[in-house]
Design a protein that fits this description.
Blueprint: E1 10-15, E2 20-24, H1 33-44, E3 47-53, E4 57-64, E5 67-74, E6 79-84, H2 90-100
Antiparallel strand pairs: 1-2, 2-6, 3-4, 4-5, 5-6
């Protein structure tokens, strides 16, 4: 899968030691998170397994090619990132970063 540079998502930072991929995305707030997150997942051809929301943080369990990752969004700072759930998922996280670059 090759993403076009016209996509609104790109890599802000990949930190494999901390198991996270910070993503540059369109700005979002509490109400628009779903729209932005679903656009990212569509871009990656990933699917939502489960959604959880608190006062300031959205956490979605997503499936990307058989690998489960956490998609998190903090609406006060409009920050979006993916987290690997285990060491075994780090290659997948790096692969996703390559797709977004």
């Amino acid at each position: 899968m090759t993403l076009l540079k016209s996509q609104p998502f790109s890599v802000r930072q990949l930190d494999l030691n901390a198991r996270y991929l910070s993503i540059i995305s369109p700005d979002f707030d509490f109400d628009s998170f779903d729209s932005v997150a679903l656009q990212l997942l569509k871009t990656l051809d990933a699917t939502v397994i489960e959604k959880e929301c608190s006062a300031d943080l959205h956490i979605w369990l997503v499936d990307f090619e058989g690998c489960r990752l956490l998609l998190k969004g903090e609406h006060y700072s409009s920050t979006l990132w993916l987290e690997a759930m285990s060491e075994d998922d780090l290659d997948t996280l790096a692969f996703v970063a390559g797709l977004l670059n």
